[in-house]
Please model this.
Amino acid sequence: MLNHPRLAMDLNNVACQWLGGAGVKGNGLERTMTDPTTAQSYGSVPDASSVQVDHAVELARWALPDWSATFPGARARVLFRLADLIEARADDLASVEAVNVGKPVAQARRDAGRAADYFRFYAGCCDKLNGETIPLGPDQTALTVPEPIGVSAHIIPWNYPLSTLARGVAPALAVGTTVVAKPPELTPFTAVMVAQLALEAGVPDGAFNVVTGGGEIGAALAGHPDVDQVTFTGSTATGRKVMQAASAPVADVSLELGGKSPVIVLGDANMEDAAEGVLRGIFFNAGQVCAAGSRLICTRDIHDALIERVAEKAKAMQMGHPLDNPDLGPLASRAQLDRVQGYVNGATKAGSEPVLGGIPTAPSDYPDGYFYPPTIFADVSPDAEIAREEVFGPVLTTFLCDDADHALALANGCEFGLVAGVYSRDSTTALRLARRLHAGQVFVNGFLNAGDTVPFGGVKHSGIGREKGLAGLDTYVARKSIILNHPG
Ligand code: NAD
Model:
């Protein structure tokens, strides 16, 4: 039984597997759910069993011929309805996501709106998926026909469970692919809520299934012999395992992995804009953001003044219960808190002292919660562990640079390549840097403010493939070439 003291909604209705258009009891491990704000357990959720994973894939395979043959306009109407239903239930979805992840409720409400927007955007694409014709001389014509890739598996991380689910499932369903999704074990509920709404919207039974559970269930799905494509969003370490598992059935993979994103601020930048961008870039969702701007690279002339400005704003950030909409909620789990503190301890042991934060501090009403305050390490060596590895918490490291070229070398001297930022009033320099930065997305004079219609994804160890925007459709499409011979 699940009973969360701050939620009006009954979670028992969404603590299930979603197989063939119905809620089904899990047959696997019972997983205790812990509230990150209070460290109190509020019940348990049964995982799927491996037999249920097989069944989910079977159902998706069974539903594929009908869903892929549904007229594009009819698929669009279903997905537009789903977007409307998500919007109508956005407050419930946001409350569940907020208490699960520890995310301030306004941020969770924004994620629910983004989920609706993904379905709406891709609903609009259903009947605009065109192929091409390729003339091969007078006697031959080739056509390309975009066809659904088949059965698509979606493995989701805990920091943005709802919006990440929608980001992948919406384009998959739009092109006629069928889906088995595995939400994160920490935050399984909103995926099942969306699947319930999908049924109400008219997504046919079996076209969108959900199996809950941890790494074993993800691994069973990633290496399943009857899965054609795997969309994985999570850490680089797990992404490697997924890629390996998917190699057995030679399934296509899209990997949206970790980051260590640089924000370059040059001496001529608008200081207030840069401070706001840096602040939001690292402390939004308590830094548990793949694209977090965790490396600030700043010219010497303005470094100290900029840090002072960012630190002042960070000090004013309030921590509290996610449903009371603070600036920062708790980190999502005890393991995440330990991970962040581990990196901070490693940095102090190596001789760095934080100029801000660095000690777990919980608000007095929630002394046992997994809170971590905004933390800044200034002028860090680029070789330090905290400078190279993804902390995934509210920890900013800063680096001094001499000029734009030095900044570029520091920014690119990292194995990740998800997002980057450049602040400079000199548009030629900014564009030169943007073109040379190793990243899938580069922001100039702003940070993480693109919305969700712009392609997103990593280079280097940050991943393979692109999601969002029109590029997000390609992941779920197999283009068939048909060659017509018409001699004489
Ligand atoms: P994680 O890699 O631990 O887990 C992600 C998902 O994979 C979970 O659902 C988990 O159950 C599942 N999983 C675990 N082991 C598996 C295995 N062997 N095979 C298949 N699935 C398995 O990541 P996390 O801690 O949940 O999320 C944080 C990470 O996700 C960070 O590195 C962050 O940068 C990354 N992330 C990336 C993006 C992006 O778009 N690039 C977005 C959000 C998060």
Q: What stands out?
A: The mean pLDDT is 98. The longest strand covers residues 140-148. DSSP finds 15 helices and 20 strands in the chain. The radius of gyration is 23 Å.
